[in-house]
What we know:
Blueprint: H1 2-8, H2 23-29, H3 31-34, E1 39-42, E2 46-49, H4 56-67, E3 70-76, E4 86-92, E5 98-106, E6 117-125, H5 129-135, H6 146-156, E7 159-163, E8 167-170, H7 174-187, H8 192-200
Parallel strand pairs: 3-7
Antiparallel strand pairs: 1-6, 2-8, 3-6, 4-5, 5-7
Amino acid sequence: xxxxxxxxxxxVHYTRQQYMRGPGDAILCAKEFMDGxxxxxxxxxxxxxxxxxxxALKQLMDQYEKTGGAVIGCQRVREEQVSSYGIIDGVKTxxxxxxxxxxxxxxxxxxxxxxxxxxLGRYVITPEIFKILEQTKxxxxxxxxxTDALRVMAKNENVYAYNFKGKRYDTGNKLGYLKAMxxxxxxxxxxxPGFREYLKTLEL
Length: 204
């Protein structure tokens, strides 16, 4: 009940994306709520478990405070996965987990991919992105890609990619969703032990 009261005290503003035109268009729909301030983006099909550590978005916020530039949440992925993500082309900084972005490629083939550093659903973005998104033409799949806008931004100002700490689940596919549900359930003190014993009894 305490958690419900806490959530209920949060003010929520929402807007509706009338047509499925991609994440860039979805962010553009929220322009009027930003009031010229940097803002965080959390994509719903990426769930990140950080245990007792800082949430992934908070990690990016800390990097924004240090750099003053937009920050893309990233992790390294396997070669066979690069075609599913926006992939970073960048240069190292003094922080081994922080890369200065030179370019990005949306869902490249393994041969096209400049790295295995993939954008994974967490961003801190400066309001300059809105002007770019308004001029961004639909890309792959007829969608306005956030990746395309961030590429333009990286040419004109500092954009960084940060290797955030945490285990990321791709809940946009059925198997990833099930993995997340099972593992989060097993971590809970209240239901974890009973659920673990239940799983041991399954005979399929």
